[in-house]
Amino acid sequence: MQSDRRSSGTLLQQRHQLPWPQDKKFKILSIDGGGIKGILPAQILAEIEVELCNGKPISSYFDMITGTSTGGILAIGLAAGVKARDLLSMYLDRGSEIFPKKGKVLLSPFSTIHDRGPLESIVRETLGKRKFGEANTRLCIPSLYNEGEPVMRKTAHHPDYKKDHAREMASVALETSAAPLFLGGYRESEEIFLDGGLFINNPIMAAVVDALACYQVQRHKISVLSIGCGHTPLTFDEKIANKGATYWAANAQRFASHLQSHNALGQAGLLIGRNNVLRVDPTIKVEIDMDDYKEAASRLPSLGKKAFTDNKSDMLHFFETQVLQYERHHS
Predict the structure, then answer these.
(1) What's phi and psi for 27, nearest 5 deg?
(2) How many CB atoms neighbour CB 61 within 10 A?
(3) Labelling 269: which of 27, 40, 96, 224 has CA 20 to 30 A away?
(4) What stretch of H or E contains 127?
(5) How far apart are CA 326 and CA 63, in angstroms?
(6) pTM for the model
(7) Which residues are within 8 A (CB) of 43 and not within 5 positions of it... i.e. 6 or more apart?
(8) Catalytic residue ranges
């Protein structure tokens, strides 16, 4: 019997590369995951929208947008034509519905910390019935499928990409943001999905590799604006290294996400040149939990504004010209 796994259709040969003008840059916007800390990239994007976009949508300045989890919601929202300031308002005005004040929560072995219902309602209200294939720019959005395989949802920007364009944008956004500890898996029909951050919280390499696989673009012509959700310095000593299961059950994912991000940035730098990657990920002195709405809403907007101001001059080249509309190969 033939497997119905998504990977059963994997090409065994190199993908046919579509033409790309030699003198044209390929600009990518990449947005990390981070739960309610998505307020930070949303604030940065709102500042960009006002200061650098000349009244045009942010998506019109990028050839591809990728995002994981909360970054995936932002990426899809931008590609759907939702204004960055409205996405920021969604986080600030309704984030407490998704992540209500939790106080001291005793983790239950039988349930998630929060109900995923409010997130589903808010995402569907924001994105409506739009199809993934209606995105204004190319998208790469990761999640994890219940067959134990990673999924990378892609718009039909290459003839080989036939499976995802008919899905609803809201469904893809809910797939990538299905954080298992906090909100639980997202179910659609017989399929169950978990958060893309479990394997690629910083999705920069997903976009860089896809651009190189799909187009005859020179590596040095790819440039990436990579936006994080803020980070706290991650160090450890012998005492921490030898802590037991309680500590590592609570902190292993934070270590994994931090290190995956460093590795992805390093790989992207090797492929396209580190000078072609602008990483905006300000330091958060005291860690904010990904479901701590009160702290995130209080501290991150001002940090996002400062991060934009500090990096504005380096961002300018991304917004000098708009990109051409991409060709949709399936509709």
Answers:
(1) -100, 130
(2) 21
(3) 40
(4) helix 117-127
(5) 8
(6) 0.93
(7) 88, 300, 301, 303, 304, 305, 308
(8) 69, 195
